[in-house]
Structure formats: C-alpha cells, structure tokens
Design goal:
heterodimer, A: 385 residues, alpha+beta, 2 domains, 56% helix, 15% strand, B: 237 residues, alpha/beta, Rossmann fold, 6-stranded mixed β-sheet, 4-stranded antiparallel β-sheet, 10 strands, 25% strand, binds adenosine-5'-diphosphate, binds magnesium ion
C-alpha cells in the first residue's frame, strides 16, 4: 500500500522506468514467441524426419522429376519397410516470392506408409482420401480451408480446375496447414503440365514423382539405408533426421542468440533505469530513511521496503510489456494467417518467464540503492534537507 | 535505580582532513529511572550530540582519551552492533525531535503504527496500540491525516504518540517545542509532565526555556561540549 504510494509520488520518473522495462519485456515476449514457433516447427520437422528418409533427385526444393519405378527399387532394398512416392507442387503455377511458407499441393497414395508414419494428421471436417479416390478430390490444411472459406462438401479451384473438398484438417500450426492433399494420379497430371515441354515430351504422368518417402524397418541403421538408396538410384539425394537436425540447427541457434541478446539488453537498460530511479528515490527520501532508522527500523526492513518498490516497478513493467507483446503477437498472427503464416506462439511459459524476469530484474537492481540507503547514518540522514 | 550511566562520552566530527570539531569532550551523565531531566545550554554546545549517544543513535568515540562507557538498564551498551542498537531503540527508546520528523507520505496513524511494528507488534495489534496512543495525545480525530494536513502542535503530538506507542523505558525529546508557538508548547509540555508524574516516564528533555527547565526534577547545563560543574561544587572548590 505505502509501496504504491511511494512510487506514485515520483510519477514521471517511475513512468519512464516502467516504460523502459515495458519495451524490453514486450520485445522479449515477441521474439520469444517467434522462437517458440520456430522451435516447434523445427521440433515437428525433426519429428517428421525421425522415422523416415526423404529421397529427392538432389535439386533444391526437391521438386525435380524422379521415376515411380525408383520407389519400387527402393522398396526392394534391405531394411526398407515401406515407401510412399509423392508429388509435391506449389498451389500457384508461378512461384511468386511471397511472405512465409507457400501453399502446396501434395499427391500421394493413402496408406502407402503402411502405418509407419508416426505423425498422422487429424480431420476437422469430412474424411481423409483413400487409395480408391481419384480425380479432382482434395483434403485441405486448416489455413487453406480458412483462406478459401470451405469445409468438407465445398469446392475450391486449383490451377484453374474445380476440386471437391472431401475433408479439412485440424490446425497443426505447421506446414500441413498450408498443404492440399490430392490423389497421387491427380498431382502427377498437374506436375507433368508444369514441366517444360521438352522434358515433358519424354515422360508419362503415371511414372512421375518428385519425392519418395522411405520408412526404414524399425531399429535399422538409417544412414546405411540412406547410403544404399543413393547407391541404387542415380542422381538421388537423401535426407535423414540427423541431417535435418544439422541443417536447421544453425537457424535455431541464431534465433536463440537473438532472444538472449534481447534479454541481455533489457537486463542492462531495465536494470540501469531501476538503479537510477531507486537511487534518486533514496536520495529524495534520505531524511525519511533517517527517521525510520532512528525510531528503530532495521537495515533489513529498509532494504526490504526499497527492494519491494523496485520489484513492483519490475512487475508493473513486466505485465504491461507482456500485454503489449501479446497484442503485437495477436496482430501479427492475424496478418500472418491471411498470408498463410503463423509466426508467433506466445506460450504460458514465455508469459510467466517474462514477468518473473522483469520482477527479479527490478528487485536485483533495487538491491544496490537499497543497500546504500540501509547504511546511511541515521543522525546524518536526519540533518539532511 | 540508575537507568542510564555515561562516562567519558566524547564525539569529534572531522570536517576535513585537517579540521575537526570536538563536540563532546568527555561528558559524564547519570539518569535515574522515573526522573525528568532537562538539558540546557547554548546552541552548538553538544546537547543534541549527547542525546544521540544516550539514545544509541551514535556510539561515543573510543580514541584520544579515557575509555568511554555507557550503561543502559545496567547493561554495557557502549559498543553494540547496529542491529542490537536498532532493536534497543525500537523497543526501549522514544524519540521526539524539534522538527517533528514524521514520514510525510504516511498518515498520523500509519506513522505511529510503523513504530509499533518496529517494536515487534503484529500489524493489527500495532494499529490498535497506535489508535490508543493517538487518543491519549488527543489526536484520534486527526488519525487519518497526513503530516502536511496537521498543524505544528498536532504534528508534534503525533510524533509524541509515535515515541510512546512501545511504552519506552526512556523518552528523549530534543527541543520538542522549539518550532511551536507558546500555547502549543504548553500543550506538549503538559503531556510530557503528565507522562512523568502519572506513569513515571523517564524523560530527557533538551530545552531553551528556563520555565520548562524549572518544572523538571533536575537540569544538566552544557557549555562547549562539557557538562557545567554543579554550582554547589563550584562554591566548594
Ligand atoms: N554530523 C555532523 N557533522 C559535523 N558537524 C556536526 C555534526 N553534528 C553536529 N555537528 C556540529 O556539532 C556542534 C554541536 O552540535 P549539537 O550537538 O547539535 O549542538 P546543540 O544541540 O547543543 O545545538 C555544532 O557545531 C554542529 O554544527
Ligand atoms: Mg540541538
């Protein structure tokens, strides 16, 4: 009660200090939320690659043609449990360089993983595709469903053709949200049309894929299987979970470094302004501290009082900063959702950490001036005007 | 019974590297329990400094002379840690200052309650004791007012309530009426005298007013950092 009153007495300076902490904590919240999202994407990616080897022809994006026969050759290798040949396409025919992850169309044979895929997708409406489905049928990822305003039973246009929506997926906050699942055959036909005429001439749609997902037998040596695949299929490239971790590890590290950087900057800026505010407050209240010491207030009580005040500055700054960061995250995600990319994930853990961080920051910074206040000579402090 | 015994109390302030000010130059004082004693003397003679030492706000200087000694309730308190002195001040001493020295952001009630808490009471008991003491000094109707909203006389009565709330063994009042007009002074002095006569409150009072001094049990006169020799001793010499 009197803690608040003491802060209110120095409105402007307290406001500025709280503002400084607010900005630091808001930045911390926004970037931590971004890191959460990146880390969970990476985590899901790692989970995705955990049980499989992805085989492409080695070109960037893994969208160059391979032969369906390659899948059969791989299936015959030792240690391979199942193969899932796929065609991955961009929703739009021309690759517009946009913000975030582009919408994609994936053609595959339902059930090809033979139950080995450990991260199955969940339906929001309708049904999944079956091996018997053919033609212009589609299951839409959650972001695509929202974007096109459809549920199971509706229809969407892909590459100028009408597709019947048989199902929509639950949100995963990751790549499947922006993916449309179609029968393999349907995707093969679109894919052939996408290829340059000279290349297309010599190819048959049914034999065309651009990605083969390989499920090795449980407990087998993935690197050995990957090596056997590369030896068997000319011009092929494999990606295993370990390689994925290596590739994305760098990105994650950069993000974590940014977070630590912001935390350190908030620490220094917030900490120094709390120290400054509390030091001024102690100077202004020298006489009051002298009175309290003279009538029997112990050093510990004086320290507790001032550290409490500094902690309150920290809590207020932290809560406002959290609110501000939260608003930024909500707005950015709203914007992002319309372009198909959710970039921020503000978790309860991040929220609690941000407020706890600024509270402790305030208290620790407050300790320094509080300590010097407690050591004042009461008589000298009483003489102070 | 002797409540307070001081011997060879000295205090020197170093104003700079070469200039130092000998404010107390070897003072002996004895205060009996239940006594009301006035300290008189010219400004700058060291009255406040003596009060600060007797009230355990400062320790006497130990060097450049015979060892000082200060006993309070028979216990040696010459060299105590800050924590122990603070605790004794909280529980056994009550201070009243010339310039009131109330905490400006706290109401009269909160000021008194704070002292009661320092004296070891829990907050609800402290509040009750504070209200009771405020009504004893006739300030219950002003309990919720902040110092700025109180007259000088009211502020000093609030400060007196703060000094008394822990039923101190020793009340130290340093020119408590120095900032008050004569009728407010009379009120405060009447309270101090009533305390002494009704409750046997041991009181040490710095004053410039000979009439006030005359109404106490005994007067200690100071000049230049020393206690004046008693007149009859001076005659005998
Ligand atoms: N902390 C201090 N530093 C320097 N000088 C001081 C200090 N405290 C008191 N003095 C000086 O010591 C002298 C005695 O002060 P004080 O005990 O307050 O006298 P009194 O109360 O009799 O007027 C004065 O000259 C005062 O200026
Ligand atoms: Mg004085």
């Amino acid at each position: 009660m009197s803690t608040l009153r003491n802060l209110a007495r120095r409105k402007l300076r307290t406001t500025l200090t709280v503002l400084g902490i607010t900005i630091g904590i808001a930045a911390l919240v926004v970037f931590s939320s971004m890191a959460n999202q990146i880390n969970s994407l990476v985590g899901l990616g790692a989970e995705f690659y955990d049980d499989k080897i992805v085989v492409t022809d080695g070109e960037p994006f893994g969208t160059s043609p391979m032969r369906l026969a390659d899948a059969d050759a791989i299936a015959a290798l030792d240690g391979v449990a199942a193969v899932d040949p796929r065609v991955e396409l961009l929703w739009e025919s021309d690759l517009a360089i946009g913000f975030g992850i582009p919408d994609t169309v994936t053609g595959s044979t339902p059930g090809a993983d033979a139950g080995h895929d450990t991260v199955p997708l969940k339906l929001a409406t309708g049904r999944m595709l079956t091996a018997e489905d053919e033609g212009n049928l589609v299951v839409l990822g959650s972001t695509l469903a929202v974007k096109h305003g459809v549920v199971a039973g509706g229809s969407v246009e892909i590459r100028g053709e009408a597709f019947e929506v048989v199902g929509t997926l639950q949100s995963t906050l990751t790549a499947p949200d922006t993916t449309a699942l179609v029968p393999l055959r349907t995707a093969q036909l679109i894919y052939l049309g996408d290829l340059p005429p000279l290349v297309a001439e010599s190819l048959v749609a049914e034999e065309l894929v651009n990605q083969i997902i390989v499920y090795p037998v449980e407990g087998s040596d993935f690197d050995a299987v990957a090596g056997a695949i590369e030896a068997t299929i000319a011009n092929s490239a494999t990606m295993t979970g370990a390689e994925f971790d290596e590739t994305v590890g760098g990105t994650t590290a950069i993000f974590n470094a940014i977070i630590i950087g912001i935390a350190v900057i908030s620490l220094v800026v917030g900490g120094l302004s709390v120290i400054n505010t509390m030091a001024m407050s102690v100077a202004e209240r020298t006489r009051e501290i002298g009175i309290k010491r003279a009538i029997g207030g112990s050093r510990r009580r004086i320290i507790r009082e001032l550290v409490g005040e500094a902690g309150l500055i920290g809590i207020i700054g932290g809560l406002i900063g959290l609110t501000l960061g939260w608003v930024v995250v909500l707005l950015a995600n709203d914007l992002g959702r319309s372009s198909g990319t959710v970039l921020f994930d503000l978790t309860p853990g991040t929220a609690v950490f941000a407020v706890a961080f600024s509270t402790i920051l305030g208290m620790v910074a407050g300790l320094i001036p509080a300590w010097s206040a407690a050591r004042l000579d009461p008589v000298a402090a009483l003489r102070y005007e | 019974m002797m409540l307070l015994e001081g011997r060879n109390l000295r205090k020197t302030y170093r104003l700079s590297r070469r200039i130092s000010l000998e404010v107390l130059r070897g003072v002996d004082v004895d205060i009996k329990a239940g006594e009301m004693v006035a300290i008189m003397g010219p400004s700058g003679s060291g009255k406040s400094t003596l009060m600060h030492i007797l009230g355990l706000l400062h320790a006497p200087d130990a060097n450049d002379g015979p060892a000082p000694e200060l006993k309070f309730e028979g216990a040696n308190v010459t060299r105590l840690s800050d924590g122990k002195r603070t605790k004794l001040r909280a529980h056994k001493m009550g201070f009243v200052f010339q310039s009131f020295n109330l905490v400006p952001t706290l109401s009269a009630l909160e000021n008194v309650t704070l002292a009661a808490e320092y004296g070891g009471m829990k907050s609800s008991a402290a509040r009750r004791a504070a209200l009771e003491t405020l009504s004893w000094v006739g300030l219950d109707h002003r309990a919720k007012h902040r110092p700025m909203e109180l007259s000088g006389g009211e502020q000093q009565r609030a400060a007196l309530a703060r000094a008394l709330v822990n039923a101190p063994t020793l009340l130290l009042a340093d020119e408590p009426t120095g900032n008050l007009d004569s009728s407010r002074s009379a009120e405060v002095l009447a309270l101090l005298r009533r305390l002494n006569s009704e409750r046997g409150q041991t009181t040490l009072l710095v004053t410039h007013d000979p009439a006030v001094a005359a109404s106490t049990d005994r007067v200690i006169r100071m000049t230049d950092g020393l206690v004046d020799a008693e007149p009859q001793l001076a005659l005998a010499a």
